[in-house]
Write a structure and sequence with these properties.
The protein has a 5-stranded antiparallel β-sheet. The protein is an alpha+beta fold. β1 and β2 form a beta hairpin. Helix content is 31%, strand content 18%. It is built from 3 helices and 5 strands, in the order αβββαββα. The chain is globular and about 35 Å long. The protein has one domain: 2-Layer Sandwich (HIT family, subunit A).
Length: 140
């Protein structure tokens, strides 16, 4: 999978496409997945270009996994989730749909069903409400 500089995440990073931002620093960006598997599903991306995990410079990848850990803690608290699922796919054969390295942080609750990956668009008001909860947990 080669890097497409016009992928949706690259456009978000350039400010050419909107997102519901949860967290940002100099190296990473976290935002709500617009087609979440469950409420509170967050995506974390490095600002460095790289289609897959193997393509991202080591320093950016290190910062991205640390941001993923921080977001996992915040999502767990904000969504009152007993479990957190962290996913990272590399290549179309693995289910990657956007050619920019990214991590999924998905809250899990026993007995609840979950939507399939990238299938159902969420209401923007729900995304923003969940983002506010997660931002509050990050501030604690």
């Amino acid at each position: 999978m080669s890097y497409d500089p016009n992928n949706i995440f690259a456009k978000i990073l350039r400010g050419e496409a909107p997102c519901v931002k949860v967290y940002e620093d100099d190296v990473t960006l976290a935002f709500m997945d617009i087609m979440p598997q469950t409420d509170g599903h967050v995506l974390i991306i490095p600002k460095a270009a790289g289609a897959t995990l193997m393509d991202v410079p080591a320093d950016a990848l290190q910062a991205t996994i640390l941001t993923t850990q921080r977001l996992a803690r915040a999502v767990k608290t904000a969504m009152q989730a007993p479990g957190i699922y962290v996913a990272q796919m590399n290549g179309e054969a693995a289910g990657q749909t956007v050619p920019h390295c990214h991590f999924h942080v998905i809250p899990r609750h026993p007995g609840r069903s979950y939507r399939d990956h990238a299938t159902t668009m969420a209401d923007s008001a729900v995304l923003e409400a969940n983002a506010q909860k997660i931002r509050a947990a990050l501030a604690e």
